[in-house]
What does this fold into?
Amino acid sequence: MKTFIAVCGLALSFSALASPHWEYSGEAGPEHWAELAPEFAACHAQNQSPVNLTGTVKSDLKPFHITYAAGAENMVNNGHTLQVNYAPGSKIDVDGMPFELKQFHFHTPGENQIEGKSFPMEIHFVHANSKGELTVLAVMVKEGKANPTLAKLWKEMPKTGETVTYDQKINAKDLLPANLHYYRFSGSLTTPPCTEGVRWLVLKNQITASHEQIQAFTTLMGHPNNRPVQPINAREVLKD
Ligand SMILES: [Zn+2]
It folds into this structure.
């Protein structure tokens, strides 16, 4: 028995070193993230995501350019979300710099709010430039017609810790609305370590998914996977 406990303790401390455990509720929930580990301290910082996009300021934001190829390689269920990992070669140009699409993933309900309105689902397209800076493009999903691209992705949904690989690569562009008008603000990762300095572009227009498609994701996760909205503090939210 003694040995068993020792081994367990060892395993626990190793996994804690690798990646401290966090959740969306309870003692390891969002209000405690900053205290779970020193590297999560930013979760209590001043420029956190998500936010309620309100009091937005009209400005001359330039349209951004997206060059996505069909590159969805696989989808992993990491227990916090379904994450679709993307092949190199797809990018978004922001501030005159290319940011490569690394992955996209899902939250239900949505995380950012638009004028106080919450959507049943939100997709985050995560991009990085050569300096490791991040741009997240967010699109809200509202309930409506079934989404054909989601239908392909949802065909086989991996259980926690599992990965599904795609033979036919899906293009992330098929999950974006035609109209790319957007809000912009400076924020953070919405999961630990809550790193700040992330460029956030939130599309004003939504895409649709059927009630069943949204429900399939909610059921698979078994819990909401949205961080509550964070104070805007000194930030401005711009709109084009
Ligand atoms: Zn996200």
The CA atoms of residues 94 and 156 lie 34 Å apart. The longest helix spans residues 2-18.
